[in-house]
Amino acid sequence: MMKIVLLNDTTLPVYRTELADLLLDAVMHGASVGYEMPLSHDTAARHLSGVRDAFTVDCP
What we know:
By secondary structure, the chain is mainly α. Helix content is 47%, strand content 0%.
């Protein structure tokens, strides 16, 4: 069953592996998201770490 979860700086690390899998699948099937194949799982996971950093930046 699909589960919808609000992503934030706390929940993103919990789902990082699954989100990296999703990013890899999207790129492998031709999605234009700024990456090209070959894309490693490690690179996808590092990208998600950068997304987590964006959650922690204070916005004015």
